[in-house]
Amino acid sequence: MAKELKFIDLNYKPKEDLICLFKIKPARGLSVKQAANTVALESSVGTWTEVKNENYVKRLRAKVFSINGNLIKIAYPEEIFELDNVPNIFSSIAGNIMGMKSVDSIRLEDVSFPKKILMGFDGPRYGISGIRKMMKIKERPLIGTIIKPKLGLFTKDHARVAYEAWSGGCDIVKDDENLSNQKFNTFEERIARTLEKANKAEEETGEKKAYLVNVTAETKEMIKRAQLVEDLGGKYVMLDIITAGWAALQTLREADFKLAIHAHRAMHAAFDRNPNHGVSMMVIADFARLIGVDQLHIGTGIGKLEGKIEDVEDLLEEIELKNVKATHKRLNQKWNNIKPVLGVSSGGLHPGHVPFLVKNLGKDIVIQMGGGIHGNKLGTKLGSTAVRQAVDAVMHGIPLKEYAKDHIELKTALNQWGIPKEK
Ligand code: CAP
Ligand code: MG
Question: Which of the two ends of the chain, N or C, has the fewest CB atoms closer than 10 A to its terminal CB?
Answer without folding.
Answer: C
